[in-house]
Q: What sequence folds into this?
């Protein structure tokens, strides 16, 4: 059995979770022993005070690693790259990865024990078919939604979740399926989703599953997963020349995981609708990327969901496209891309098999982790907050009651012709008004 070498080249922060803060934890939690190279050491995601490696320093570390690995053919090598601030460092990382790949004489096709191309993979595929694709296994993952539960990232469930792979075809009554194959170059419409030419995994036969085995798509003896961290929501947060460096590097990347904005930068195509996404997937695949995963696409017509797209050449040399519909969490999920990419690599290394199953499991974990984080934040000090809310509610009820009485007394004082009653009503109204003022002050004090 070959040894594994996972090299994670990303950012590190003193305060917070992103880049290697997440990757190091996830890899170790899942039983890997990663080699960590921090491209920057910042105070936090928002305060970029700290240390940044230059290209010479990156080269010193990676070239030394390459020397150690040059003659160690008994190990598989997996690179994960994330935030790299300047173009020179991106170029240097690319150079070292390519040098090591060349020295190891690795082809970028399908895997086998010798690291060479093998078009059939019969024995290997049959083993995985029995392990991963039997009917019982498939049925376990096709019934209902995930029941997995975690307690936040630090105690997160980074193992395989107990749940399904949500592979259902949309029908006219519900548009809640997670993914389906999109016919090449064709935009999905609701009427198309009922046609037989859209294959779903739950309908597919066992032999169809083998088309999506990652072992049949890329060489797992040497793998580069690239998260081209450049920006988000129309804002670039790296040097502009980094975009050009990634454009040159992507032809050597095995799996790329850009978000919508990063995809637009790499392809020069503005994404407004699904056909634009298909064009981008085609561009990246024809540039040489083996598997393209666009991690988060926003559409104006659906404010409550994000869409993730996956595309690759299957073992019949045909491009296939998939999409996942994901419930949007309406708060800033910092580090979600970093969590996705390191979990993706971990599941590929440990599990192999159907890439679509892997992505579903990764998405389940990411969603669960952030829902748990949101739940925890909302319920921090929940008992204290409930007690405070009860008191506030009681005060509000008293204020409303006093206001009502004040208005009644005020009206009585204005309308009553009896001077004595008029005077008494005004006095009572003023007392009620003073009580209202005191209650409001009390309410403000409780809120502090």
A:
């Amino acid at each position: 059995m070959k040894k594994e070498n996972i090299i994670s080249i990303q950012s590190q922060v003193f305060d917070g979770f992103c880049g290697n803060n997440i990757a190091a934890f996830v890899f170790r939690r899942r039983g890997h022993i990663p080699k960590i190279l921090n491209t920057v050491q910042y105070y936090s995601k928002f305060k970029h005070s700290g240390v940044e490696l230059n290209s010479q320093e990156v080269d010193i570390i990676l070239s030394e690693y390459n020397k150690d690995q040059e003659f160690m053919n008994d190990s598989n090598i997996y690179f994960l790259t994330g935030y790299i601030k300047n173009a020179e460092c991106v170029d240097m990382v690319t150079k070292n990865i390519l040098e090591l790949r060349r020295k190891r004489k690795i082809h970028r096709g399908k895997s086998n024990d010798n690291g060479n191309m093998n078009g059939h993979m019969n024995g290997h595929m049959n083993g995985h078919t029995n392990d991963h694709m039997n009917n019982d296994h498939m049925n376990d993952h096709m019934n209902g939604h995930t029941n997995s539960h975690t307690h936040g990232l630090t105690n997160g469930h980074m193992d395989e979740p107990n749940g399904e792979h949500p592979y259902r075809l949309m029908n006219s009554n519900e548009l809640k399926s997670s993914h389906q194959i999109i016919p090449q170059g064709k935009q999905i419409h609701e009427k198309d989703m009922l046609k037989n030419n859209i294959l779903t995994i739950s309908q597919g036969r066992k032999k169809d599953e083998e088309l999506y085995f990652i072992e049949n798509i890329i060489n797992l003896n040497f793998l580069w997963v690239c998260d081209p961290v450049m920006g988000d929501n129309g804002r670039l947060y790296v040097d502009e020349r980094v975009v050009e460096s990634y454009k040159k590097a992507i032809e050597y990347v095995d799996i790329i995981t850009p978000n919508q904005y990063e995809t637009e930068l790499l392809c020069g195509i503005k994404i407004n609708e699904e056909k634009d996404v298909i064009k981008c997937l085609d561009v990246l695949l024809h540039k040489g990327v083996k598997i393209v995963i666009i991690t988060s696409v926003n559409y104006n017509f659906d404010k409550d969901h994000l869409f993730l797209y996956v595309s690759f050449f299957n073992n019949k040399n045909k491009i296939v496209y998939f999409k996942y519909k994901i419930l949007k969490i309406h708060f800033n999920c910092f580090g979600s891309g970093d969590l996705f990419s390191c979990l993706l690599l971990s599941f590929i290394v440990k599990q192999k098999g159907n890439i679509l199953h892997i992505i579903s499991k990764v998405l389940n974990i990411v969603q669960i982790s952030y829902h748990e984080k949101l739940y925890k934040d909302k319920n921090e000090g929940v008992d204290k907050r409930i007690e405070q809310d009860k008191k506030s509610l009681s005060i509000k009820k008293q204020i409303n009651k006093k206001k009502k009485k004040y208005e009644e007394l005020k009206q009585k004082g204005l309308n009553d012709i009896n001077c004595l009653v008029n005077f008494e009503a005004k006095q009572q109204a003023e007392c009620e008004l003073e009580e209202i003022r005191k209650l409001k002050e009390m309410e403000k004090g409780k809120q502090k």
Observations:
- The first strand starts at residue 3 and ends at 15.
